[in-house]
Amino acid sequence: MLSTMAGALGQLLPWLLSILVKSSVLLLFTLAVTQLMRQRSASLRHFLHSVAIASALLLPIAASMLPELRLSVLPRPTEPGFIPVAEPVAALSSHESQSTADIAPELGQPAANLDSSRTSAPALHEMQTGAPSGFSSPEKPTLARVNWKQGLVLLWIVGFATCLIRLLLIQVRLRALVNRAQPVDSITLSSRLRWLCRDLGIRREVVLLASSELDVPIAAGVFNPKIVLSPQSGEWTETRRNAVLCHELAHIKRLDGFTQLLAGIAAAIYWFNPLVWLTARAMRCERERACDDYVLSFGTAASDYAHELLEIVSTLRRPQPAAALAMARRSQLEGRMLALLNPRVQHGMLPLRAAVILSLAVSALALPLAAARLQERPAPAPSVSKVAPSAAPAAQVAPVAPAADDQETPSMLTPAPPPEPALAPAEPHEPVSAAEYPASFEYHNNTKDSSNSAPFDCFAGEGVQHTNISSHSDDDGYRTWTASWSGGTCSIEAHSSGVVRFNAEATAIQSISPGGYFEVNERTGDDLRRLRVEPGANGQLNFSYKVNGSPRDFDATAHTWFSSFLLQLERVSGFSASTRVPALLAKDGPQAVLTEITQLQSDYVRQLYFMKLFENATLPGPLLVKALEQARNEISTDYSLAQVLLTIAQRYDLNDESQRAAFLSGANKLHTDYEHSRVLIELLKRPNLSPQILRATLESAKGISTDYEKGRILTTLAGLSTFDESEITTYLDLAGSIGTDYEHSRSLLALMEHQKMSPQAVSRILDSASSISTDYEKSRILLALSQSHNFDEKQIATYLKLVDSIGTDYERSRDLIALMQVHKLGNDSVSRIIAETTKIGTDYEKARVLTEAAQRYEMQGALRDAYIKAADSIGTEYERNRTLAAITKREMM
Question: Which residues pair with 466 in a beta bridge?
Answer without folding.
Answer: 486
